[in-house]
Model the fold of this input.
Amino acid sequence: MNIAQLILRMLIAATVSVMTASTAFSQASTQSTGSFDFNADGVIFQTADSASKVIMRFRNQNWATFTMNDEFDVTSSDLQPRRLRLRFGGTLVDPRLSFNIQLSFTRGDQDWTDTQFPNIVRDAMVFWNFTPNLQLGFGQTKLPGNRQRVISSADLQVPDRSIVNGAFNIDRDFGLQGFWRPINGSVIVNLRGSVSSGDGRNQPAISGDGLAYTGRAELLPFGAFKGGGDYFEGDLLREATPKLSIGVTAHRNANQTRTRGTLGTPLFAQRTASVLYADAILKYRGFSLYTEFANRSADDPITVNPKDSTQKAAILVGHGYMAQLSYCFPSMVEVTARYAVTDADEALAGLRDYVKNENASLTCTYYANRHRIKGNVELGMNRQTAYNSGNAVTTTYYVRFNTELGI
Done:
């Protein structure tokens, strides 16, 4: 039995169980021990005293991508379920004790390329909510990095995140995280911080020491966005007044073991690297502007295989920036333009990573149920400048069809 058949059987079994539970609860007396509901939040199971509540959600993203050379001949095609995820959240025993569990089931969503094993567990987090403005969490989840990475992939305007995120994001890690909102009102300040392993999700024991330290500060000078709109892309709720959020993240990973810290292929020796992010999102009457800057630095970023000096692995040092502008019509049709650049530092001269990458794209999206059910088409261009080859330029084009379905 392959994994697709297993997942299908699990979903069928879950559906039958939910239908059975729904019937049982609807026929139960007032002494029922719990309840079942299905609404915009997902499938909800709750005890009679409401002390424990489990919310189940799923999502499926499918896409088809066709890449062409500069003569517009198709050179490759990528047709796959990009993401298939199952998520559980809620509270247990005490409403202040909450949790978040997320599992992924597609090959491209499990870090197969880097880890060579099915990395299914994405989030496994327990939170204690002291107040609505003060929270402490322990486990594995996204670090408080660049906004586009922290935004769920289900809430993107473009089918995938930018090349800047791909090169410099700090992704998920295991550790301790905290959130504090010291200022709340017409002006809001959010502070987030974490101490984590620095080696990424689901990693085995690593020899030696070294942790990762991350801090993020956000300023919302015009108050809160509608419906938490600072953490989903596009002005789907059409802000009546301008809303702005500015964020800065600093991250230091001591003795990291992978080329991109929590991601990437293994280094031949441990190194310490720092990452700096700055991002901003502005929304007003259907218009949305999002931009970010990233920089990674490290002393002596190149490592060499002690058994073969021709084999090298390096921390991807350099910088990148991205901007995307969109307008969502009242009909829920949206047009988004994006431009992004990543540029490797000259410390990588001689390695294949010593390149400049550029991406420009135009996306048209229809939101049937906001970000939960949508479809879009993206037309894009990728250009790479190879510094080691006399600045030779290679240009490719692509068209991508994408659908998102979930609760």
Summary: Confidence is low (pLDDT under 50) at residues 10-31.
